[in-house]
């Protein structure tokens, strides 16, 4: 019996099936060999009647989820994915002798049925994001949360890409409303400028990072955002969170200029853009999960980004 880990950071479906290859303890990150669900396994194949809902998986030969494809645009026959270790759960599998067209061996059969794995993924996602789940609702979405948001802001007026990124990538949920409102206010802009800032302070024995930014293209709008965090505190992480929360509010296909005093953020961004950064080297970057989120935002919204270094301030 083999163990396969399932990534479950998607409300609507299972993100991926994976076999662990590396665990980076200092980042609490696991790198996986990607396996995909064989959809044909729900049908009758080769005169064999499969158990209803049986789930079979086999190795992915390369897809858009692969870290190597994302960072190097280099085709590969092996697909690797990285994620936080606490964004996964384990299911048991066994090797199968069944054959499916267009799918190569080895093929594994999951002990649990596909529908059961989807339910586990949804429960795991909701528990980690403190979402309220209606047990009588036959849906992979969270209609109650969307209804609560829609009572405050008209979600139909928002660009769906911004809305989906904010709700999916930003935690805790208490930050969603402010960022959604800002995204709506910025929807008419095509060229945007932000001054971002991050700070590091100590409260008794706890390090606290503060972050914030101001939309400077038109100060009459008075658009600002700020917040704080305590996990894995560092000044670079604070600046990076400020940049991410600014970018995620920008309209698709816009030009964005970020004014920052962080050389680390500028240098790392340039390294991701121009260097041949392998998956394993990427995992060694500090705050690599945040960098991965930032790249996803830029690619999804098709933003054109430029950074301008400003002088650091003392307060």
How would you summarize what this structure contains?
With 315 residues, this protein is an alpha+beta fold.
Round the mean pLDDT to the nearest integer and report it. 76
The order of strands across the largest sheet is 1-2-3-4-7-6
Structural class assignment? alpha+beta
Report the helical percentage.
25-40%
DSSP strand tally: 12
Order of helices and strands: EEEEHEEEHHHHEEEHEHHHE
Query: What ranges have pLDDT less than 50 throughout 5 or more consecutive residues?
Result: 9-14, 21-27, 42-52, 131-141
> Main β-sheet, in a few words?
6 strands, antiparallel, barrel
Cα distance, first to last residue?
A: 58 Å
What does it look like?
The protein has 315 residues and is an alpha+beta fold. It has 2 domains: 2-128, no CATH class; 152-309, 2-Layer Sandwich (Nucleotidyltransferase, domain 5), CATH 3.30.420. Helices cover 30% and strands 28% of the residues. It has 9 helices and 12 strands. The strands form 2 sheets. Strands 1-2-3-4-7-6 form a 6-stranded antiparallel β-barrel. The model is unreliable at 9-14, 21-27, 42-52 and 131-141 (pLDDT under 50).
Task: Describe this protein with a few key phrases.
6-stranded antiparallel β-barrel, alpha+beta, about 325 residues, globular, single chain, 9 helices, Nucleotidyltransferase, domain 5, 5-stranded mixed β-sheet, 2 domains
Question: How are the secondary structure elements laid out?
Answer:
Layout: E1 2-7, E2 16-24, E3 29-37, E4 56-59, H1 67-72, E5 80-84, E6 88-96, E7 107-110, H2 114-128, H3 143-150, H4 160-169, H5 176-185, E8 191-203, E9 206-215, E10 224-229, H6 235-247, E11 255-260, H7 263-274, H8 279-283, H9 288-301, E12 304-309
Parallel strand pairs: 8-11, 11-12
Antiparallel strand pairs: 1-2, 1-6, 2-3, 3-4, 3-5, 4-7, 6-7, 8-9, 9-10
Helix pairs in contact: 4-5, 4-9, 6-9
């Amino acid at each position: 019996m083999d163990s396969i880990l399932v990534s479950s950071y998607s409300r609507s479906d299972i993100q991926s099936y994976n076999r662990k290859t590396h665990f980076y303890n200092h980042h609490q990150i696991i790198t996986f060999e990607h396996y995909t669900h064989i959809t044909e396994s729900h049908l009758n194949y080769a005169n064999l009647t499969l158990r209803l809902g049986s789930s079979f998986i086999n190795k992915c030969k390369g897809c858009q989820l692969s870290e190597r494809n994302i960072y190097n645009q280099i085709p590969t026959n092996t697909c690797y994915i990285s994620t936080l270790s606490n964004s996964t759960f384990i299911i048991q599998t066994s090797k199968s002798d069944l054959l499916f067209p267009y799918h190569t061996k080895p093929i594994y059969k999951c002990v649990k049925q596909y529908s059961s794995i989807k339910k586990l993924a949804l429960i795991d996602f909701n528990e980690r994001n403190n979402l309220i789940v209606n047990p009588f609702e036959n849906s992979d979405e969270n209609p109650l949360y969307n209804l609560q948001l829609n009572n405050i802001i008209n979600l139909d007026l928002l660009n769906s890409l911004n809305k989906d990124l904010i709700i999916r990538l930003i935690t805790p949920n208490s930050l969603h409303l402010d960022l959604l409102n800002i995204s709506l206010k910025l929807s008419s802009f095509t060229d945007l400028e932000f001054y971002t800032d991050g700070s590091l302070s100590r409260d008794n024995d706890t390090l606290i990072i503060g972050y914030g930014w101001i939309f400077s293209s038109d100060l009459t709008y008075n658009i600002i955002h700020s917040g704080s965090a305590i996990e894995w505190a560092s000044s670079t992480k604070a600046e990076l969170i400020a940049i991410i929360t600014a970018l995620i509010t920008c309209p698709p296909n816009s030009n964005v200029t970020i004014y920052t005093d962080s050389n680390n953020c500028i240098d790392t961004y340039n390294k991701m853009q121009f260097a041949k950064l392998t998956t394993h080297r990427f995992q060694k970057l500090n705050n690599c999960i945040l960098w991965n989120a930032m790249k996803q935002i830029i690619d999804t919204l098709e933003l054109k980004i430029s950074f301008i270094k400003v002088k650091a301030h003392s307060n």
